[in-house]
Amino acid sequence: MKDSGLHAFSEEELGGYKTLGYLVRRGIFTNTECEWLGYASDAVEAQALDLVDDSGAGRAITNYCLDGNRFVDIDHITVQFEHECDTERLRVIEPVNDLSPELDALIGDPRLWGPMGQLVASDALSLWTAKLNLKHPRVGSGFGWHQDAPYWLHDSSHVHRLPNVMVLFDDATEENGCLRFIPGSHLHGCLPGCEDDRQLAGFYTNPNAVDLSAQIPVVAPAGSVVFFDPFIVHGSGPNLSEHPRRAMIVTYQPGGYPALKSGLVRPVP
Fold it and tell me: Using CB atoms within 10 A of its CB, is residue 33 exposed (0-12), middle (13-18) or buried (19+)?
């Protein structure tokens, strides 16, 4: 396996990850780095909005709605607009690294790919996807309970080898909609989806399939990183605070495989 050096997980950390399905490391990135990453995320949001409004940019632009919410595809990049919000604010950009060289560089940071090499169990890594979650103050919507694996089953033959890592650009609190996990839920494979009239209902975990009272909020300072299994049930609430909760989630896979949306191989580092 690729040498992960000083950033490797300890045996205790690996044991905790295997049991709970997630692991938090606090204070991995400095305040200065987080400030710089916050500027990069604001810049790429502005860039994405410009592309959405510029039909002469030479890119294929496709607008559509799912469950009443607006999505726009810019070539292979998808942007999600905020729910029930009358302002032009984005919720998610994926894959964000194809619009931002600064955020693309984060994918190659050894503080991320070093321990990820252990979780993927591969001598080489490549990118599966990277998305920017923008939870704006007061308008940032939550994410319903879900697993990542059901979204990817039809596009990957190795879903169990697609671990995630979230880098917090801002402090994550319960008030601003921090990530929440159902510990141990990753041990049960793909769980039943919801059965209602929503177009995406099947991608949300049926609440009867998990013990929601066991949920754990991941309250952590800016600069923390959160590693989590593709099968763990997770979600988050809305941002009710006056502060942003920006974060980038990077998903790695064994080397040589193409990325989810571009179809191109992006080696790491």
Answer: middle
